[in-house]
Amino acid sequence: MSRPPAKIALRGVRKAFGPKVVLDGIDLEIAHGSSVVIIGGSGTGKSVMLKCILGLLAPDAGEIAFDGQVLTRRSRAEIDFYGRIGMLFQGSALFDSLTVWENVGFGLIQGKGMSRPRARDVAIDKLRRVGLDADVADLSPAELSGGMQKRVGLARAIAANPEVIFFDEPTTGLDPIMADVINELIIELVRDIGATAVSITHDMASANKIADRIAMIYHGRIIWQGPAKEIRASGNEHVDQFVHGRAEGPIRVGVLDE
Amino acid sequence: MNFLATIGRFALAAMAETGRGTLFLKDTLTQGLTPPYYFRTILGQALRIGYNSLPVVGLTAFFTGGVLALQIFVGGSRFNAENIVASIVAIGITRELGPVIAGLMVAGRVSAAIAAEIGTMRVTEQIDALVTLSTSPFRYLVAPRIIAALVSLPILVAIADTIGIMGGYVVGTQSLGFNPQGYLKNTADIIEFNDVFSGLVKSAVFGFIIAFMGCYHGYYSRGGAQGVGRATTSAVVSASIFILAANYALTSLIFTH
Description:
The structure holds 2 protein chains of 2 kinds. Chain A is of the alpha/beta class. Chain A is built from 9 helices and 10 strands. In chain A, strand 1 (8-17) and strand 2 (20-30) form a beta hairpin. In chain A, helix 6 (146-158) runs parallel beside helix 7. Chain B has one domain. Chain B is 85% helix and 0% strand. The chains are: A alpha/beta, B mainly alpha.
């Protein structure tokens, strides 16, 4: 039985900041078209891993491949990596000097050289896709609520119909209802675009909702991965503790845990 | 031993900072000078850096010219050389005080503003967002600010020179009793092309330092609001020091002959 090549593969990725080892040999394959959620507590290396895949940080060792092509600074440019991915940042990271539609159309104008009027049409279409009216297009991001900013961030991430969309804590800081709305949107958009989705979160409700597969990262390693349905029967006590949100267990959370 | 460790730590930090600054300069030159160019951003920044600094720079230049006239009058009168006021004001302003005062004022205004803006973009992940949207922060953020400052500062200083000399003229004619025609003639006779030109060249260098320090400290800021605050302070302090150091170096190397 032959498997299609992984959309994204991490092999032995290591990253340390000074003496502090954050990623200690990450091996992870993300299949084409799947939705993988990486869970883990704060400070376990989730964000650093995501930044390594995105090329915002350079790993000390190991390699990251996209469609079988090993990513370096040069190869990212050659395969137009950033034109093929979208990213929803935790705080939305909207450009506050630009209007809402300019934010959504930014990658189209700057990255793909689309004209401003056309980019505006696409942006308004994408805003509608995430449930926002055309009349927010000319507002500044600061005039929107946190939930609406998240939607704009989502519209910006999907604007160029990316092959892979990354989500960094997509539900953090939102009320439970808005969080669920965003989860639903993520599922719907990823399915419609046919994209591969990679999310990092510590919100188990969100993970259960959007994941096909879940991987848990702890102390810079993937300690468990499998289909989302099986996470409650993982047989791994670290995973159990995290999934059930218990203070007692093998994962020690101390204020002096340095 | 503790003392030695402190020296060592300081030396290491200084070297790391120098290396990081050099790499930042390299990225600015290699990425910032290649297309696409953001002309609208450059124009907007030139307006912010140059035009909006006019009131501050104009006022300081006026008072500096005025006070220079007063002081030189006092000094000159000790050896019966009061007439030298117009000449010293003209040379002092164009060669030295115009560029330096304008440079330091703009450093305070603009380095801080740039560092705060780019620093906030850093801590809110907007710079990361730029990268994921296929846009180099060096091209989109750093280069336009540096180019704008490089062009604006000489223009600003040319205006500051004029206003500074006018400050000296107003004080000289109104309170020191100089003849207006004589004062102007003295000024025009003494000024050489090189006086003004050397000041303008210096000011272009100052413009580069101002924008570069703002961008550099903003780009590497971390740790939320406090980090941005630290970046802002560092930008102003380092820009001011580099301006004064560069001023001495340029003057002694090129403009004293």
